[in-house]
Amino acid sequence: PSSSAEPGCHSLPGGFSHTHFSVCPPPEMIYRHMAVIDGEMVHFEILDTAGQEDSLQIEEKIKWGDGFAVVYSVTDRCSFDEVMRLCFLINHIHASPRRSSGSEQPPVVIVGNKKDLQFDRMVSTEDGENLSKALKLPFYEISTRDSYEETVVVFNTLYQELMRQGHFSPGSFKRRTVSKLMEKIPRMQASSTLNSAGRSLSFNSFRDYIPE
C-alpha cells in the first residue's frame, strides 16, 4: 500500500511530548514522554506512523499498542475516509483467537487534527461526530499546532479507558509484542527523564493512511 503523510510537522505525539523539530521528523517515530495523571507518574511510548508499510507491518504495530488514536486531517477527505477501516482492523487483530482472552478491546479514539485551518477544511465537525457515534468511540477535533491542552485530553482519555477496563496495575503494561521491526523504529525522548518509577504503556497514532 501507499500512504499520504499528514501535511506539515505538527503530529499528535510530537505535540503531547513537547517535541519540536526545525524540519519535519521521519515518517515514523516512537516518542517517549512522562506525565502525571491523577497523581501518578505514567510513562508513554507513542508510535507515530503515517501508514507507510505493508499489511504485515501494520499488524505488528497494532499488536504492539495498548491503545490507539486514529488521526485524520480535517483538510484531507481521503484520510477521514480511512478511519472506519483502520478502526475495524484494530478490532479484528485484537479479537483474533490467538490474542483473545475474554478482555475488552483496546481503547480507540478518533481525532480530527488541524481544526485551525478552517479555510482549507474538507471534513466538517459533524462528519467526525457522526462517525464516532456510528463506531461508538470518543471523538476529538483539535489543533496540535495551537493547543497542547487539547492534545493532552486525547491521551488522558486513552489512559482513563485503560483504567476503566480494570486490568491496570503497576507493571501490568508490558509490550504486547516484541519484534525486530519495532526495535528498528527510532525513539525520541522528551526532555523529562524516564528513570522515575511509574506505570508504562504504549499507544499507536495512525494518521492519514491511504491505500492504493
UniProtKB/TrEMBL annotation:
InterPro entries: P-loop_NTPase, Ras-related_GTPase, Small_GTPase
Superkingdom assignment: Eukaryota
GO molecular function list: G protein activity; GTP binding
Reactions this protein catalyses: GTP + H2O = GDP + phosphate + H(+)
EC number: 3.6.5.2
Keyword line: GTP-binding, Hydrolase, Nucleotide-binding
Any Pfam family hit: Ras
TM segment ranges: none
Keyword NAD: no
The keyword Ribosomal protein is annotated on this UniProt entry: no
SUPFAM superfamilies: P-loop containing nucleoside triphosphate hydrolases
Gene3D superfamilies assigned to the protein according to its UniProt record, in alphabetical order: P-loop containing nucleotide triphosphate hydrolases
Family listed: Belongs to the small GTPase superfamily. Ras family.
Record-given protein name: small monomeric GTPase
Organism: Bubo bubo (Eurasian eagle-owl)
